[in-house]
Amino acid sequence: MTAEAKSAHETPVFIPFSGSHMFGVLTEPSRTPRGVGVLVASGAAGTPSCGRNSFGTSLARELAGMGFHVLRFDYPGAGDSPGILALPVFDKPLVNEVVTAYEWLLNLPEVHEGIVFGQCGGGLNALFAAELLPGLRGLVMTSPPLTPEPKRESIVRGTPVKELAGRWLHWKNVRRYIGPDRKRYAKLVVRRLQAAAQTGTSRLTSALGLGGQALAAGTPFFRRMEPLLQGGTRMFILFGSNDAWYVDFEAELADGQLARMIRRYGDGQIRTLSIEGRLQNLTEIAVQTELRETLSSWFAEDEWRSVGSLDSAGRQS
Amino acid sequence: MLEPTGVTTDSDATFPAERFDPKAGICESAGYLGPDGERIFVYAHYPKHAAKAGIVVCPALLRDFLGNYKRDVALGRELASRDMAVCRFHHRGTGHSEGSWLTTSISRMCSDALAVARHLRDQSAGVPIGTLGTRLGAFVAAACVAPQPPQAPLVLWDPVVNAEGYLRQALRAQGIKNLREKTRETPSGSDLIRTMVETGSVDLLGYPLPHALHEEMVDVDVLDLLEGRPRPVLIVTRGPTPKDAADLGQAMEKAGFDVTFESVENGESWWFEPELLPVASEAVAAAPPPSAGPYVLTTLRWLKALEDLRREEPQ
After folding, report:
1. Residue contact A80–B288, C-beta within 8 A
2. Inter-chain contact B96–A25, Cβ cutoff 8 Å?
3. DSSP alpha helices (H): ranges in chain A?
4. Whole-number Å distance between alpha carbons of B145 and B132
5. What chain B residue is nearest to A187 in terms of C-alpha separation?
6. CA distance linking residue A195 with residue B103, whole number of Å
7. pTM of the model
């Protein structure tokens, strides 16, 4: 049970950036600090850091209740930050903004290491900034853009049916299919089958010379992940079945670079999860709740304790 | 008259974040008002010199809260650079504030706004405090401006006057979204209303609308909240003034209010504004939208005209 932080543990801050400021809210731990800071990089196109239905605020308070220092911030021109909003372009993400906010967080005396949680475009920003973030231990991305445009129609990678079936029939998944949430998982399976059918159709049309274009092998997105994994950063990628890049994600998961990275580094270091619904913009309360619970359990793991964290008496452990 | 609940005092105010913008010549501060567990997030914009007047910006609610956010921010900064003090805030249970949204009521929201107005008046040497309310925020703005002196203006952006009509539109938008996204559940409008009655709230595009709040809004009249104290009112609407807003304006005029109608064209809908895209094309990103759109510019013009008029009046 965690003691969720209230605003008494929160401090609005102005973070100097490029001759002006970015607005943010620091939520300090309401229990023994872990020594780990979490930067919440919201969707990069203007959403204030409190998020839809206060998702960012409630997540920050919940994580602070687990002992994390959490900083949510607004990009310049978004939310309460002054400036002009720069909409992110796929290969020019808002890296400096993420780096500045992360460094501000890690300059706090009690914070030694960090995790970045990026939503949608915020995930892309975080990934592209990651190599510049000292002490980065974890990176969570929800529905990040995997390519400049979602390529729903152009996936020609074959789905390895055997592997897919093996995954779907894994005992953990089977338990879900017969559990209380069976209706939702059944729908998810249907969607996956539809995606697989689409992939198969695309492959057939490609083989017949009727069009289709291979998903670019080694996209910048996945190329950026590899060195982070080599450096020991843990990753968690979540997609909603209605998200723009979901089909691309499924194809990558079936037989793409993502699948190869999971095989190589193990699901302890890189985890993926599909949630039914839309994670982009979080337009359903049920999805907000499921995402929050999923993130809570990932962050609750004891591994997220900095080597230099403090014990309950405030001593360095 | 609504009974205020949990009215906060300025002794509970903490504003740890402050900045000065030399380019715009304004000061900004952010912090919280109110007792622990019920703190209201407030963001204030002050002019470099003493403020001539103040405005409390009552935010839009539910789905409109984020959709209108940048306009409120832009207005705050523009007004502060014209020697007006502005406070924006998040109602309890929303944004960065504390508290639960599901237990909210119009009286609680009005009490949030009144606490912010008191704080602003204390910070601005007792200048008259006008209010601005967007969409459902019109209810709160009307109640907040009522105790202010008659020269304090009321600005309403696309006011929602008919709460039942609002719910109908919201349910229609929710239905269209469900169809478009093929979401896990696609209940009909009547199913959603039944859910709201049975469970106490309904999911409207990612925000819970509490049944009790909806019932309360159906019963409350914006004109009643103004307590019959005439003052200048600006009603800005998207496109031609809708019948509800026109009726409200006419009723206000009958009651002696000085009402100005303005309509702005920006081609967007409150329900179907394009959601914030995760990535943009080079062309879109290269041309950022202007910070002050038609709502803000129209309001600035009207406030300036109001000020000029007052200056010309014999003392």
Report:
1. no
2. yes
3. 55-64, 95-106, 121-129, 161-168, 171-178, 182-207, 220-230, 246-255, 257-265, 285-299
4. 9
5. B184
6. 42
7. 0.84
Q: Read off the pLDDT of residues B164-202 as tens digits, 9 standing for 90 and up.
A: 888 888 888 887 777 776 655 667 778 888 888 899 998
Cα separation, B241 vs B252, in Å, equals 15
Q: Establish if B276 touches chain A: CB-CB under 8 angstroms.
A: yes
Q: Which of A6, A88, A184 sits opposite B36 (nearest CB)?
A: A6
Give yes or no for residue B5 having a pLDDT over 70. no
A243 touches chain B (CB under 8 A): no
| Interface predicted TM-score (ipTM) over 0.85 | yes
DSSP state of A234: E
- Whether A250 contacts chain B with CB within 8 A: no
Model confidence over B205-230: pLDDT tens digits? 899 999 999 999 888 899 999 998 99
The answer to whether residues B285 and A86 touch, using CB atoms and an 8 Å cutoff, is yes
Element spanning B21, H or E: strand B14-21
State whether residue A127 sits within 8 Å of chain B by CB. Answer: no
Please tell me if residue A184 touches chain B, with a CB cutoff of 8 Å.
yes
Q: What is the DSSP string of B142-181?
A: HHHHTTS-TTS-EEEES----HHHHHHHHHHHHHHHHHHH
What are A140-149's pLDDT values in tens digits? 999 999 888 7
CB pairs under 8 A between A and B: 146
Range with the poorest average pLDDT among A55-59, A161-165, A218-222, B264-268: A161-165
DSSP B276: P
